[in-house]
Structures are given as structure tokens and as C-alpha cells.
Write a structure and sequence with these properties.
heterodimer; A: about 120 residues; mainly beta; 7-stranded mixed β-sheet; 4-stranded antiparallel β-sheet; B: about 110 residues; 6-stranded mixed β-sheet; about 0% helix; globular
């Protein structure tokens, strides 16, 4: 089945630094990938939609200059949290939909990244 | 904007019994998709079942089935013969016909009592 690899699974960074999270589709091509944020014991909130070869589309209220998204290939999207602050600490999850998924079957999720900013 | 509401923060069921998780949604679209995802303690999101709005027949996947009431905008999940491995957070999610990303409900924490 479709697999999405997300790295790192956990990261601790100092306030003011940047951290990059990778989301990679291992056995399928994904024109579109999605980034979600999940606070403790809460739901997933869509942050942005990442399209290969074009700029990401951000949801209302998400700072595009803080959360930089790059989707340079059909199998890789990255999320960079720039100038991280403690309030950016959260669980970040990516998901991907296969380019061949014309039936809109569904989405494959990565295993998530727990970011802690100290 | 679409909203998804799960009114049960937590549900508990005896092993082997049946449990129903509620989900309602609000949309003005006629073409959309609905999903139930399971998130165990590992935090990995696992697709349980999905339903296309244009299909009248309720989706079924082994012990999991849905009751899709389009007019009422209701999409409940029934888990039959509950197993200990079913214990997890369950999220109802909506995808519009034109949008790509999912809108999730707040989730229901399902506890299975042995």
C-alpha cells in the first residue's frame, strides 16, 4: 500500500532557530501534499496545500513567511518552521494524495513530527 | 466554510459490543466526500472508511459501517464486535468537491473495556 515517510519524528530546537520537516511519498507520486497541525488532544488543522512545482496555498491565519513549504518533486514536500518560538511547539502531520488517484480515494498520512521549541 | 462536529468527546464500550460514533457536518456543496480516520496512540492516521456523497448506499468495511444521512448532514460510524485494538481517537473528516484538504472534527476517544 501507499506509504508516506515523515522525518524527523521528534525534534527539539532552540527559540529563534529554524527546523525543516520532510514528507516523502515512498511508492507513489504525489502532485499534492498537505500539512496539518495538531495540538495536544485536539483535532488536525489544515495549514497548507503543497503543489509540486508551484507555490503552496495557505489556510487563513497561517503565516506563510513562518511556515515555508517547498514541493520540489513529485515525492517530496518540506515544511520549514522559521524563527521558531515556543508557541510553534506542536505535532505536525503531512499527507499525500497519489497523482493517479483520479477517483479521489483518499489520503495517506505520514507518522507525524513532534516539534518542541525551547 | 465547512464545519464538522463530533459531539462525543469520549465513548466507552465493552469488548465484542457495538458502538456508534456521531458526526454531523455543515456544507452548502452537493458533491463531497466524508471519511472516518482512526488515530491510535502512535498518532498515525489510519483510514477506516469513506463515503462519496453522491452514493446513497452506506459504505461498509468489515466490522465498520456508516449511516450516511445526506439530508440531515449526518455521518455516523458503527463499529461491530468491538476489539481491544479499536481503542483510539476517531476523527470524522470532510472534503469538498473542489477543495483538496480535509476538515476534521474534534475527535471521539473510544475506550474498549475488556
Amino acid at each position: 500500500g501507499a506509504v508516506v515517510s515523515q522525518h524527523p519524528s521528534r525534534v527539539i530546537c532552540k527559540s529563534g532557530t529554524s527546523v525543516k520537516i520532510e514528507c516523502r511519498s515512498l511508492d507513489f507520486q504525489a502532485t499534492t501534499m498537505f500539512w496539518y497541525r495538531q495540538f495536544p488532544k485536539q483535532s488536525l488543522m489544515l495549514m497548507a496545500t503543497s503543489n509540486e512545482g508551484s507555490k503552496a496555498t495557505y489556510e487563513q491565519g497561517v503565516e506563510k513567511d513562518k511556515f515555508l513549504i517547498n514541493h520540489a518533486s513529485l515525492t517530496l514536500s518540506t515544511l520549514t518552521v522559521t524563527s521558531a518560538h515556543p508557541e510553534d511547539s506542536s505535532f505536525y502531520i503531512c499527507s499525500a494524495r497519489a497523482t493517479s488517484d483520479t477517483a479521489n480515494y483518499g489520503y495517506t498520512f505520514g507518522s507525524g513530527t513532534r516539534l518542541t521549541v525551547v | 466554510a465547512q464545519t464538522v462536529t463530533q459531539s462525543q468527546p469520549e465513548m466507552s464500550v465493552q469488548e465484542a459490543e457495538t458502538v456508534t460514533l456521531s458526526c454531523t457536518y455543515d456544507t452548502s456543496e452537493s458533491d463531497y466526500y466524508l471519511f472516518w480516520y482512526k488515530q491510535p496512540p502512535s498518532r498515525q492516521m489510519i483510514l477506516v472508511i469513506r463515503q462519496e456523497a453522491y452514493k446513497q448506499q452506506n459504505a461498509t468495511e468489515n466490522r465498520f459501517s456508516v449511516n450516511f444521512q445526506k439530508a440531515a448532514k449526518s455521518f455516523s460510524l458503527k463499529i461491530s464486535d468491538s476489539q481491544l485494538g479499536d481503542a483510539a481517537m476517531y476523527f470524522c473528516a470532510y472534503r469538498g468537491g473542489g477543495a483538496d484538504g480535509l476538515t476534521f472534527g474534534k475527535g471521539t476517544h473510544l475506550i474498549i473495556q475488556p
